[in-house]
Amino acid sequence: MKICIAGKNNIAIEICKLAMQYFDKDDIYVITNSTDNGIDGFQRSFLKYAYNEQLNIVNLEFVYSFSNMIFLSLEFDKLINPSRFKSTNLYNIHFSLLPSYKGMYTSYWPIINNETSTGVTLHKIDHGIDTGEIISQIEIPIASNMNAKQLYQEYIRAGIILIRDNFDNIINGNIVSKIQSAKGSTYHSKASVNYKNIIIDMKQTAHTIKNQIRALNFRDFQLPKVENIPISHCVIDKIKSTKKAGTLIRENKWCFYYATIDYNIYLYKDKLLEICNCCYEGNVELLKYFIMCEYNMNEQDREGNTPLIMACKKGQIEIVKLLIANGVEISLEDYMGNKPLDHAFNFGKSTNSYECYDLIQNNI
Ligand code: TYD
């Protein structure tokens, strides 16, 4: 039996690692996305991983003739035509609770549509787009402050779990599946969002504006902009709008304050760099202000540094205490795979002061 893993990101890598426990390396085939440039970012490069592991990197045509093969599509960017394959063991992970949200941008549309949950689906591949029989699903709650990037990361995590849970059955051919209902089936095409021309509609209710901001906040692609300034999040005021919807009432260093159809809204300017700097420098008062303004303390910069990691790099114990008290994710690692604990350890090693390290260790 052979296995072919086609796709991108951490999900493809983690499932490749799983496959290596079950299959000979020679029987594992990798197909990477055309956009994979071999560089790790907020998601690791599958191409780089496969190359370093010396796996067979092939193209689709190469695997069509294999009859005894499992084909797994994990964020793969090409449409699959099952009639080209000799194998019938063709599976896809789709980032939604099918039958709803077939197609593209499933980190965008459920947020825009104010959904409170979504999920991941393991399904058979048929001739349609995400239309195959459903094998298994995991639901993901969408919290009211969750943004598109956070949702995408949840999809990746849940997708890995879904494959792991079903892997034995997949390779043993123990698949039970059910056809998708036509009821509740929705689809969004590539043209359904034009990320190159994003306009936030401010003549809306505060809640709808907030959903637009959340759905467009994916800093590795873009942040939504208002008055040409990148916005990280918004907070709906208790005060009802008396001015015309879309009127800018005031602006300061940190935010815009707008009237909407119903309640006034604060649109906070992106300050991730300043937040990371203030944690590194140990500016407790400024950090308290950012927390009060509801800035997300689990946000990651280009290298995956979080405010907590920045504080650990410099052994800023008061900042670490404050961040922990505010419930940050204590083990959120940077894109090199280093956790706050690792950074605190390095600081300890170079200064012989393990206060931060001990604090983190005791809170894990
Ligand atoms: P992508 O990897 O293209 O996959 P898909 O559309 O199949 O989900 O994009 C992942 C998410 O990133 C997508 O759900 C929405 C978001 N996104 C942006 O915010 N901006 C962009 O320019 C793109 C292409 C995607």
From TrEMBL:
KW Cytoplasm (keyword) present: no
ANK repeats: 303-335
Organism field: Fusibacter bizertensis
SMART domains registered for this protein in UniProt: ANK
CDD domains the record matches: FMT_core
Domain Formyl transferase N-terminal: start-end pairs: 75-155
Keyword vocabulary terms for this entry: ANK repeat
InterPro entries given in the database record: Ankyrin_rpt (IPR002110), Ankyrin_rpt-contain_sf (IPR036770), Formyl_transf_N (IPR002376), Formyl_transf_N_sf (IPR036477)
RNA-binding among keywords: no
Protein name per its UniProtKB record: Formyltransferase family protein
Pfam family, any one: Ank_2
